Amino acid sequence: MDPTLGDDGGDLSDADGAGLRAPGIAKPTPPTEALRTLLTRRTIVLSFWIIVLCLGLPHWLWTTSTYRASLPLSTMNDWAEGKACDLRFAYPIRLRTPGWARERIVELGGNLSALLGHDGPGGLLDFTIHPGDSDEEPLPPPRENVALTVVLHAADPPGTHEVTSHLEPGESILHLGSGITEAGQIADQIREITVPQQEALAYVLSGTPFAATEYEALRATRQTWTETSLDARNNRTFKPSTTYHLSFSLFVARNEPSAWAIEDALAAYVAPLVDALSSLSNFTITTQVQLHASFSPSIAGPTFDEASGEWKLRREDLSGFVNAAEWPLSPSIGEGSTINFVLYVPAAEYSPLVVADTGGTVWLVPQWGGVAILNLDGPSTPLKATKATDRTTLSATDLDEVMLTFADQLTSLIGLPSTPSGSLALRIAALQRERATALLLSTASTLGALSRLVHKLPNIPIPDTVATSVATSLRHIDLACQDLRAGRYSKTDSNLGALGNAQAASEASEKAFFEPSMVGQVYFPDEHKVAVYVPLLGPMGVPLVLAGVKESLSLYRSIRQKVKGT
Amino acid sequence: MKLAQLLALPATLISAVLAIPEYSEHLHLRPLPNGYLYAGFNFTASTSLSAYESQHFRYFPRSLGQILQHSDTRELHLRFALGRWDDESWGSRPRDGKREGGTGVEIWSWLDSGGGKPAVEERWSSLVNSLSGLFCASLNFIDGTKTTRPVLSFEPEGTHRGGGNGMELLHGTLPHEVVCTENLTPFLKLLPCKGKAGISSLLDGHKVFDANWQTMSIDVRPICGLGGDCRLEIQQTVDIVLDIKRSMRPRNDPIPRPRPVEELECDESKSYHASDTCYPKRKEGEMAWSLSKIFGTPVRGSCHVADGDESHDISLEVSPDRAVEVSHGGSNDTLASHEQNQLVRTMRLPDSARQHTDISLPQHIFQDSPHQNRPTLYASRQITGCGQERGGMHTVLHNPHTHQQRIVYLESLPWFLRPYMHTLKVLTHPTNSHDRPTIPLKPDQMYYTPALDRKRGTHLELLLTIPAQSTVELTYDFDKAILRYTEYPPDANRGFDVAPAIIRVLPSTHNTHNTSTAGNEIGQDSYFRTTSLLLPLPTPDFSMPYNVIILTSTVIALGFGSIFNLLVRRFVLAEEVPRSAVAVRVAGVLGKVRGVVGSLKGRLRGGGQGRGGGGVAVGVNGVAAEGDGGMNGVSSVVESRKER
Fold this sequence. Notes:
The complex is a heterodimer of chains A (566) and B (644).
Chain A: H1 14-20, H2 35-64, H3 73-80, E1 89-96, H4 102-117, E2 125-131, E3 148-152, E4 165-167, E5 173-176, H5 183-205, H6 213-221, H7 224-236, E6 243-252, E7 259-260, H8 262-277, E8 282-290, E9 303-305, E10 310-313, E11 337-345, E12 353-355, E13 362-365, E14 369-373, H9 388-392, E15 393-394, H10 396-413, H11 424-456, H12 464-486, H13 497-513, H14 516-522, H15 526-565
Helix pairs in contact in A: 2-15, 3-11, 4-5, 5-6, 5-11, 8-10, 11-12, 11-13, 12-13
Chain B: H1 2-7, H2 9-15, E1 23-32, E2 36-48, H3 49-53, H4 62-70, E3 73-83, H5 87-90, E4 104-112, H6 116-135, E5 147-148, E6 167-174, H7 181-189, H8 205-208, E7 213-224, E8 230-243, H9 244-247, E9 285-286, E10 289-290, H10 291-295, E11 299-300, E12 314-317, E13 325-328, E14 331-334, E15 344-347, E16 356-361, E17 364-365, E18 378-384, E19 390-399, E20 405-413, E21 417-430, E22 439-440, E23 445-449, E24 458-466, E25 470-480, E26 496-498, E27 502-505, E28 526-529, E29 533-535, H11 544-568, H12 581-607, H13 611-643
Parallel strand pairs in B: 1-12
Antiparallel strand pairs in B: 1-2, 2-8, 3-4, 3-7, 4-6, 5-6, 7-8, 9-17, 10-16, 11-16, 12-15, 13-14, 13-16, 18-19, 19-25, 20-24, 20-27, 21-22, 21-25, 23-24, 26-29, 27-28
């Protein structure tokens, strides 16, 4: 039909093309190429490809690659999987028995050691008994790393304290009455102190790779109420931190009272507690007075109860009582968490204000702080209205009760265990152990997460600072583990102690994980790269590839022909 | 006694250092010509330094106190401003311009200079970042490029241990910042009564930011008494100028709309006055107004929270013959003039927290226009020149007084405005005679820190003496820098804001001139700020980088392609070009399609009548045409090859 159609059938369809072709026009064929030109062309194509592959490609990869410092990934994973550290807690006990013979003490120590050790691998604590010198009097400063000192008063004349035991409030010393001399009795007394500690530690470890099966067995034996109470404690507690900012605020519904004797009250009730807790964290204290504090619009507000003559605050409203939008309770500047204590003085016409069901005026907001309502007597009461300043200033005696409550709330907010109730020193030591463990666990999981992140996202850069932080973290976490096993819990001059090391490890690991330059690069979009490369590589690549394909095909054909020909 | 204390109110800032109550507040009202009202709020709280250092806060706000402690700030001045003060008709500025800021946000503070320059910069950055969070302003954008260290313009207001040694002044501006309600709310939260009682209950964002001129300030400074007991004082002020008529428009119809022609007050003496042409008449009087109508609410209760605070809450500066009515709760009262100063009336709010207080004034026709203090100086600044490459700065300072004045002129310019200091000219001429030749004026002192690209802005400070009744013109040329692609803001074509120039009028040393009507007293310096400027910079087309990439790539690819083809292609005669296998195959398929189409056509023509057939035929024709086109394409390729 169309003359061009059959104009030339090419080499493939020579036969039927010849039929269609107009007679007289013979298709000329190009002259066969000299082998030399063929070779030159092939060399050219090959050299182009060599340059692209050997020079261009590495150069491109090198200029577009992201810097990734090498991280000790396997060590990090070991920590995350709990393989790097076998968590045990040394619990050295010192035995002091004034007036006993040396041999008897050693024998008692041996018995006791056997009895406590009998708890077997199920316990997390490693008890070691150090029989002390009997003649030392008064008690020397406890030698390093003694978790508990037991003093037997067996030699004392039998008196009223026959079988009783008591703890020294400020120190970790257990005094046993004259009636207790048997190793079994002593072991029971010691267990009474250490079992809650074991349970708390097992609770911290539960669900983590560090929890070995034997701890799980211990967990199973535990009563459910212990678990719920530990749950409650855990929910309430602030995250472990090196610094806590305590913020005491007086919120007043109207404009009186506008001052409070907070310095005296703090000195009397909070300062001693904070001093004792200083081995755990640093504390800073700020106070403020805020007038005209109104309720948040989201709560229903108090209702007047005719029967009791009190204003009742519904239980549901307690969570919204603190008017976060208007009350200036911004967190303090600097590292660390802020614990808020709010004292609210209702207006005279809404006074007394109490919580509906319980009639209480104090409650605790988990992981935030404490709230107390202070109902002042009406201005008609002669006691209060003697002087103008009495109306405007809350005296230290007005604050007594509130401050005691706040101190109590503080202990539960930072997670101080409630047992053994006799000794603050023992409770702090217990919290120290728990904290160190919790920090160690969180560090391990952060390191694991970082390792997974690095593995999952191959194109994020890893700056050297991350590698340094990881190295620091690993060093400290290792030290923390050793310190726990050796019983070095507190900070000393030469050593940070388990808690200090765990804190340092945790900080370093967080710093590595939240390195800002890593986060920013994750979202570098691929579309950008396409937009940049396609206009350049497309037009250059197509002739290069086509020439390569064509030449290699012709090479293949000529080789085949040669093979056929021979 | 109390009244006397109040009367010296502007001076109390200094004189009443000893017996300051822990908290006091004050509102000053002054009607301005042409139906404007000036309202100046002042809230002063203080705390003893020992309580501040041990972080026990009462009326001093804790949030601000902690920021100051954390950044070792000795003295802080923070300003949020909007609008322009009309010097010509409103007279001298309130508080001598000391509590006033340039448009946008301005901050200067004295920081502890221990630890050297990096430590100071660290503190400064921590300060502006924290304040940015506290006041919901973009203060965090004050970096090295927007920070200057003025030498002459500012002096510490407080008393500092060591006579001001060991501290360093840093000054930053954000002329682009739009001040609004989100800045006022945290400002009010710092007050003890939080806008719920006392005069602060009048401060409502809708009214404050509807003002013609508005400035909010926060000043923190230590004050030491003679006995050595030091206190830290925070002074918060809000100064606004409201259009009385505009503020009193009814709440149910808040949208400002043009008034009907019948209601317009026209100057009928104009020659062009007609039914459709109106020249607005200059207001001769003042309409009736009251606090509750202007601010939308009366004063709710009072905020007398400090012991020993007996001062007056509100003062009103109106002519003695005007009747002023005050209503407390239900009872009405007339506010009489003050015994000593007939121009001022004062009142103290009742202590009861529940009572509302309102002040109302009837309509008033002036016999003679009220006397306004002449400002110390008039100043204006413009950008001159055209084009996107270079421009010039032109500042006019005009001294209306009969005595010469010494001023400090401070400019902090962004780095992308590059001034040429050799072009700096300061010329002066007497105001009244324009034909006299201008005389060059030599600056007494000059401080100049040149800009570094992307690191530091220009800082220019001049100490000038302006002769009596003359005008000084200050000019210099500058280049506009070209920014990088990422440095442009989203609204790049709007232009870039240049911070206002700050002018400090030094206290006059010539005692003979103190009797003049100048607003500034002996030993008191005053401040002015020019308006901020808008600098248009060359703005690129923002798709440029991709265009450049694509263009460059295309050029490279073209070059590469042709060289590569020259090297590897074989050149033969056009007739010798072998037919490629693909082309043959395509041609075969097309031939088949053509055959099928041809046979279909034949069939349709044979029995094809009616609509349906026609429709199909069109479609078929379309296909055929396409086929043809395709064929033509192939053949043309072949032909072009032949031509080669």
